[in-house]
Amino acid sequence: MLDEIRIVSIVYISAFLPIYLLFFKFRHHSRFRWFKSIYLFSLILCAIGWELWFTYGLFDGFAVNERRSAFMNMMIPININWLINSLADAGAICMGGILLISFTSNYNDKIFLKWNWMYFGMLIAFTIGQNVFVELFLYFDQLSVGKPLSWAPFSPFGNFINPLLYEYGDRSIMLQSQLPWLFMTPLLYFYSIISYKRMYKDSI
After folding, report:
1. CA angle, corner 140, sides to 139 and 143, nearest 5?
2. Which of 14, 77, 97, 165 has a beta carbon 3.0–4.6 Å from 126's, enabling a disulfide?
């Protein structure tokens, strides 16, 4: 029970803290203005790319309420699960990754004027790395063998091609749940460049 309370707390904080920071705390900060566009773009793609499909088991998969405990179903009801997870994906993961590469450049946001393979590599290492962490230590009971996920646009192989990639004790990493971030990350980086260039052009 304590572990599940910890997971629920992490999920809700990851979902709502970025909203507070972006739209309230730092809403007038110049650096955060163009982040809002990236956040909304990410939120939409995460929702329609996989979270809605995985939540409801729309095609050849189990719905989330069939893959987790009654307590988790009560704390994060199925009909808001896709939204909460999408908010966390967009805020904590997508924006966290963009902030990370901005930080490593000493906040020289002009790195977003063109594609840079080094920064893209850092970004995809972050997004895939966090996803592996989530699967091993937060949602491991929902994503284990025997609890298939639905096909989704950003996970196009579904359960048809879904090899086991890694095992950690009784916890597993499958290809199907890693694919969304392989599709999402280049789109996130590309849109970040577009968004920053648009703001940069308007400011000169």
Report:
1. 85
2. 97
Q: Which H or E run contains 79? A: helix 78-88
68, 156 in Cβ contact below 8 A? Answer: no
Q: Which tokens belong to 156?
A: 């196009």
Q: To which residue do tokens 């902030």 refer? A: 99
Alpha carbon of residue 130 to chain centroid: 9
To 5 degrees, how large is the angle CA 183–CA 189–CA 190? 90
Torsion of CA 69, 75, 76, 78, to 10 degrees: 60
Low-confidence stretches of the chain (pLDDT < 70) are 30-31, 144-145, 202-204
Retrieve residue 196's tokens: 């920053």
Amino acid at 7: I
- Compute CA distances 170 → 90, 162, 176, whole Å: 29, 18, 18
Whole-prediction pTM = 0.93
Contact residues for 123 (Cβ-Cβ < 8 A; gap 6+): 97, 98, 100, 101, 185, 188, 189
Q: Position 174: which residue type?
A: M
CA dihedral over 170, 176, 181, 182, signed as positive or negative: positive
